[in-house]
Design brief:
Layout: H1 2-7, H2 18-28, H3 30-34, H4 47-71, E1 80-83, H5 89-98, E2 101-104, H6 108-116, E3 122-125, E4 133-138, H7 147-158, E5 161-175, E6 188-189, E7 195-196, H8 217-226, E8 231-239, E9 242-250
Parallel strand pairs: 1-2, 1-4, 2-3, 4-5
Antiparallel strand pairs: 5-9, 6-7, 8-9
The structure holds S-adenosylmethionine (SAM).
């Protein structure tokens, strides 16, 4: 079975400027680019929809806190880094939870929207700050970054985790064959766990298209272990046949 899984290998995806895609998405449809619900399209966005959008961030951070509190009774982070913060959906909730949250995003247009009504305790920038944080969070972000860029970014992120600090990370890992045509670097498996070869013609897509990349859990854990994050909890996510995982964990003190 292992030979079948790994024997055919997955070639890496053709290079694509996903940063330019996100700048475009941030300019035209920043909220819908984060959560693809018609209520969040720019033309439909009203106060009620905005409130629902940010409430979903509080829900996500509340659930992550619960998992970490259950596993680590002393979970009480005083700072948080939100990698790929978009318009600040999670950063706001992290600011409320810790009093000191920093959101990083590659898209200036997303950051401009995030700063527009940022609560106290939340700040934003396009570079990883040169300091450490008690909690590093990244949800629905790495799946949009080609893995060859994403792995070094993960390493750089983990270098900013304080001793004893916590992580909440989410990755796309593989998908059902019915999604084999969705553009991106794909790991497609059938029900016998046979790996289907998977390269998309990313260069031919229009700018502003959303692409999805699957990551290799072996590489992820190698990076985390090397950074001293050796206690991990994994939970399955399944978005209609797109399979992935939430990884919660803690760095040794
Ligand atoms: C689907 S949104 C998720 C936003 C936020 N994490 C949330 O859950 O509300 C993905 C975000 O990742 C950002 N992003 C994509 N590539 C990035 C990179 N290389 N570095 C930092 N942010 C990136 C995009 O600009 C976008 O704002």
């Amino acid at each position: 079975m292992l030979k079948r899984l790994f024997g055919r290998g997955s070639r890496s995806a053709a290079p694509r400027d996903t940063d330019a895609d996100w700048e475009e998405i941030g300019r035209s449809n920043p909220y819908f680019g984060v959560l693809t619900d018609p209520r969040f399209k720019t033309e439909n966005l009203n106060d009620e929809a905005r409130a629902a959008f940010f409430a979903s961030g509080e829900g996500d951070i509340g659930r992550a806190s619960k998992v970490l509190k259950r596993r680590y009774s002393d979970f009480a982070p005083a700072s948080a880094l939100d990698f790929g913060c978009g318009v600040g959906r999670l950063t706001r909730a992290l600011a409320a939870a810790t009093g000191d949250a920093f959101g990083v995003d590659v898209s200036e247009s997303m950051l401009a929207e995030a700063r527009r009504s940022a609560p106290s305790g939340a700040s934003f920038g396009c570079n990883l700050p040169d300091r450490t944080f008690d909690w590093i969070v990244s949800i629905i972000v790495f799946q949009h970054i080609p893995p060859e860029r994403g792995y070094p970014l993960l390493k750089a992120l983990m270098e900013r985790l304080a001793p004893g600090g916590f992580i909440t990370l989410q990755f796309a890992l593989y998908r059902d064959p019915r999604h084999s045509s969705v553009p991106g670097g794909r790991i497609v498996m059938d029900q016998d766990f046979t790996l289907v070869s998977n390269v998309a013609a990313l260069r031919d897509l229009a700018k502003g298209e959303m692409v999805m990349f699957d990551y290799d859990l072996t590489v992820i854990t190698a990076i985390l272990f090397a950074a001293g994050i050796t206690d991990l909890e994994l939970s399955h996510t399944d978005h209609g046949g797109f399979h992935g995982a939430f990884i919660h964990g803690r760095k040794a003190t």
